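Hello support,

Our group uses your service weekly, and this is the first time we've seen a run hang past the timeout. The protein is DUF1127 domain-containing protein. I'm not sure whether the cause is the sequence or the server load. Input pasted verbatim:
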Amino acid sequence: MFARISRLRHGLFDAFAVWLQKRESRWTLRYLTDEELRDIGLTRREAMTEVSKSLFWD
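Update from on-call engineer: The timeout came from a worker crash unrelated to the input. Re-ran successfully.
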C-alpha cells in the first residue's frame, strides 16, 4: 500500500514538473525576437498560438 502511495506521489510530482516546464517554455516564447524564433523554426504567429494555449493543454 505504501508503495502505491509513493508511486502516486512521484507521478503527481513528475506531472507537476512537466507542467511547470511547459508553462515556462511557453512564457519564454513571448519574449523571443523574430530572429530568435526563426532560429528555432517558428514564426511569430506559431509562437503566439503556443503561448495562448490553455494551462492544461498538453
